Structures are given as C-alpha cells and as structure tokens.
Amino acid sequence: MRRSRGPVLSGSTPAGELVSLRPLRVRDRAELVRLRTRSADWLRPWDPTVPPGGAPRRDIAADFRGYVRALDAERRSGSGLSLAIVVDDAIVGMVAASSIVEGALRSGSIGYWVGHEVAGRGIAPTAVALLGDHLMDPSGRALHRIQLEIRLDNAPSLAVAAKLGLRDEGIRRAYLHIDGAWRDHRSFAVVTEEIGPGGLLARLSHQQHQPRPRHTDQPAPP
Fold first, then answer.
1. What angle (nearest 5°) sits at the alpha carbon of residue 107, between those of residues 101 and 109?
2. What is the pLDDT of residues 108-119, one digit of tens each?
3. N vs C: which end of the chain shows fewer Cβ within 10 Å?
4. What crossing angle do the helices spanning 155-163 and 123-136 adopt, rounded to 10°?
C-alpha cells in the first residue's frame, strides 16, 4: 500500500472559485520554479531571508527533490505541513503551517505566498482558512490555536487577517528577518472557542458582498 503524502483539501472563495491544497510532488519542480521566477519582484519584499551568521537557505531549484523530502519529513514528524495551492489544475502558490507544537500548547503558525497573477481573487485567505480548519479539526490534529505574523507595512495581508476574523494580539518587535532586515510584525490568532459553525472558511463567505481591498493576497512569511 502506498504511504500517504498528506492531506488534499478543497473549498471555494467567496466568489465561487475552487481552491485545492495538496502536497508538493517532485514532478512539480518546473511549474513551481517558473511561478517563483515570474513573481520574483512581487514576492521579494515579503520573503524570509537569512540573518548574518545564519546557515544559507536551501536552493530549491537546484535540490527540489531534497526540498520535497524535507517537507514530507516535517509532515511525518508533526512539526509542519506545507501544501501547494492549486487553481484550475495549476500551482499558484504555497501555504504552510510551521512551529506546530502539541502537548499543552497545541498551536501552529501559518504563512503563505501566491503568484502575482492571482492576487486579489480571495485565493490566499481561502487557502489559509482551509489549512487552519484542517489543523483545528477535532478529528485530526485538533490544534487549539493558529496564528499569523504579518509585517506592519503589509496592508493587503492585514486585510487577509481581518477577513478571517483573527484577533489582533499586538506587535512583535524585530520578529522575523524579511527582505534583508529584522522586521516588526503584528500577530493575529484564533482559538477553537472563537470559531463558530463552518470554521474559518465560513467566515469568508460573509465577505462576498463586502468591498474588497486591492491586492488582498500579498504573502505572509511561511
């Protein structure tokens, strides 16, 4: 029997566009590299970077097979879960849960990125909602809390947190090294007691008839 590579999740944006999440595969290399190349300027201001003295980041294009193996190992260990965002059978970005801790805390952080071609279509908040609902599902990982950390100047990603109804927990000083420097971030979170019927995905449906900010899908650091 073939071992499971992880969950496959799907749901619709408030506008009715189908979004699927699935594990990354080795054969996705060319598609993902092309997407990252096309969106390099779009993603650069929000991409994590290595602080002075840190170990160099993995060259994904040069060792894509090793990258996929590492993501699979994180999933098996329970420390993380990274999934490709798929729309119309094409990869348009990634969403990832990291720093997953069980025990008494039962918490995880979610980050994402999408290509510039799909920005503003509600795809990123839908992907975050799908992954968050999966992680907090009592029949699955049953995490008690999920959180997002967003740069103070990333207004579009702040709009994503607002659409999901996440609680503002304040500023974390010099929290992540982004685009070559330590950046302050604002932390947003939700716990299971705050989520009503239908989970995070249901919260997005309430935005269907609301004005939508431009470029609401700029990435939050994974």
1. 100
2. 999 999 999 998
3. N
4. 50
